[in-house]
Amino acid sequence: MKKNKKCIGCGVVLQNENILNLGYTPNLENAYCMRCFKVKNYGEVQKVNGTREDYLNILKSVSKTKDLVLYIVDILNIRENLDDIKEYLNNEIILVLNKRDVLPKSIKDEKILTYLIERYSFKDYIIISSLTNYNLDLLYKKIMKYKKSNDIYLVGETNAGKSSLINKMIGNYSKGLPNLTTSNVPETTLNKIKIELNKNLNLIDTPGVVDEYNIIYHLDTKYYKILNTRHEIKPKTYQLFKGQSLLIGDFLRLDYLDGDRNSFTLYIPNSIKVKKVSTRNNTLKELAYTEYETKFHEDLVIYGLGFIKIVLNAKIGIYLDKDVKTFLRNNLI
Hints:
Largest sheet: 6 strands, mixed
Helix content: 10-25%
Oligomer: single chain
């Protein structure tokens, strides 16, 4: 048996000595550790607590290679500043917006790409869906055009869909390789995993960069699957007057404090319930409070959940866990 054999699901070294430690399997001949086996076969949730420093050190090791990098980003949860990744990577980067299938089909890719190209400078840009194969052949062509060697690296935050993309590329462009473990659990991939896709290309998956401001880290595990929706979002639009509020799930409240009648369109998973109430209602007011004054056509982004498109100038108040990131941006769509 190969020494220091790694789990093909998450990349950790397999061991059969301590069931409480990462990489445990009762039989070292197994391909998967027990954690990945349970995720893959039973959908059991087991969150692993890695540190942001661990993941950033891996990014720094990628930077030393100078190989092409695919920066995988969840299209529903675009960071406030995508250029942050360049603090750790000196490589040429293709920005890959994944999960196109969750946004309404009526939205034009060109509008989103123009928004990003005007703000950031990457080697190239593409919108894909690893679920539906959307634009994967085009992505493969871009990879072959820009690659420096046979190795390319996939980086991104937890749950951006790196492992799912690799699994789809295995199915499309190679033969007989096993799949990585994919799940709704943050931090599924725990180490770098190298996959020889074909004689011309090796895909190297890396752990998702942990962003402690993502809402997924501050909600019960029952929300993992909801926040990683695979269904096309059906936007919910609410007309609000000053003095009205929206209760979003059991974790977010938006108060409309000042402004004319206004339109609020929510791009969030369909199964999250929304209720309109009076601002005098005290539900969720025990949460941390933040005020924003929005300008004409801005989005309020709740990182990890989605965004709210606001049409007119408005003064709003947000009640939410104090550690969840929110910010304003020009309307994405």
